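[Automated response] Your request has been received and processed.

Submitted sequence:
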Amino acid sequence: MARKPRPMPEPVDANIDEAVFGRTTQSLNELSLMNAQASENAQAIAKELGYEGSLSVGALEDEIRFYQRRTVEAVLELGKRLLILKELTPHGEFTERVAGLGINQNLARK
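Generated structure:
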């Protein structure tokens, strides 16, 4: 047995405040223009820097986390090598060697 068709709902007369609707539309258009400008600026900076990766916020945050970890690992490796260099160099030469590498001696001691 076939179902009975449902009656269509009665149209409702919506009272729209034209002034509020206009301001809202204008605000949305301005927001859209600002987003487009920000996107263009990001693309220009990426091109200037030679960046060819994704320009999405999530992808950029993931890459930043990756390079943060990589930087920390590199600093730890640098510290290991400085400790070994300090042990291998005769007394008084470590400071000169560190300066020759362009590393501040106080930083090298840390």
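Summary generated for your ticket: Residues 18-49 form the longest helix (32 residues). The two ends are 85 Å apart (CA to CA).
If you did not submit this request, please reply to this message.
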